[in-house]
């Protein structure tokens, strides 16, 4: 039955491979360099084993978590992913709608094809966060933050691991960078400050606008002190995404940010970097009492969610699985992927002998002997 949707992550990925051309498929599925970190993000989960507890009455369960004074129904969020127009014509609006239907926070990427206002527009009151790429032009950065506040986003996620694109061999082989063909620039081309820097509007001279985008997108000159600029421009909670070193986690605390997302960008930036799950415990140890620590990278099944939360993550972000759902079946595909992950998480929680997320801790984990 060709209309039957996949269940396993592996089958979603295989079906996405069938429907996408090489360029877009490998843009999503690929990583930096030899993809060692991308693979280790998954393998590191197998290095922890769950030791379930019995006879704990798990009849009534609740997956809710509290973050920054707000209740969320579950510890899952959609990771920020740009240029979703290359995956499905519904793009970010389809993913955002799927999130809203399940009340799973959607983190809108700066590099989206559809604008943050359009994304917010299809989500109603559902929870949404905005991911900020810090533009070289500080006024563009400030404008993005203002727009995010005005359109109802609940938090700002600053991604720190992408001051430039990494060496991605699959994209180099396919000569594929979606931004250069005008995808993923929706927030920029509609931004009043960005537009004011151009000789002609992007609608009249797209090539020039893309050129200006390439010159200003990445900001390798950023330092910790720049975070103070952001703090002055918003009262929303600020999370730093891409922290891997416990000393950076401590610096985040010193600079007054509100949360951390342990991430290596899905293995797409530093090949050979520590896996997200391996990076998590030392960071929780360093700052977990003071700051919520979230993580992403390699979350594929309920057991992965349970392991990450047991090691101290307050919530986890899901990246590629949603994109394979999007490729295969648009909004319905993303919805199915997330709904299945929620169900798997709930069942696994119960089978581990827990009725709430707060009960999870390292006592149900054992480092693998294998
Ligand atoms: C990403 N990621 C990402 N992160 C971010 O902060 N802003 C962005 O625009 C993007 N864009 C993006 C595109 C694609 C195609 C992928 C696969 C990833 C990284 C993403 O938020 C997240 O960190 C990883 O995807 C998590 O790993 P998994 O779940 O894909 O293993």
TrEMBL record:
Entry annotated with the keyword Flavoprotein: yes
Binding sites annotated in the UniProt record for glyoxylate: 27, 133, 168, 241, 265, 268
Family: Belongs to the FMN-dependent alpha-hydroxy acid dehydrogenase family.
Catalysed reaction, written as an equation: (S)-lactate + O2 = pyruvate + H2O2; mandelate + O2 = phenylglyoxylate + H2O2; 2-hydroxyoctanoate + O2 = 2-oxooctanoate + H2O2; 2-hydroxyoctadecanoate + O2 = 2-oxooctadecanoate + H2O2
Keywords, sorted A to Z: Flavoprotein, FMN, Oxidoreductase
Top EC group: oxidoreductase
Protein name in the entry: L-lactate oxidase
CDD domains: LMO_FMN
InterPro entries for the chain: Aldolase_TIM, Alpha-hydoxy_acid_DH_FMN, FMN-dep_DH, FMN_HAD, FMN_hydac_DH_AS, LMO_FMN
Enzyme active site: 265
Entry-linked Gene3D superfamilies: Aldolase class I
Cell wall biogenesis/degradation as UniProt keyword: no
Origin species: Halobacillus aidingensis
Protein residues bound to FMN: 80-82, 109, 131, 159, 263, 296-300, 319-320
An MF annotation (GO) of this entry: (S)-2-hydroxy-acid oxidase activity
EC number: 1.1.3.15
Cofactor(s) needed: FMN
Residue ranges constituting the FMN hydroxy acid dehydrogenase domain according to the UniProt record: 1-370
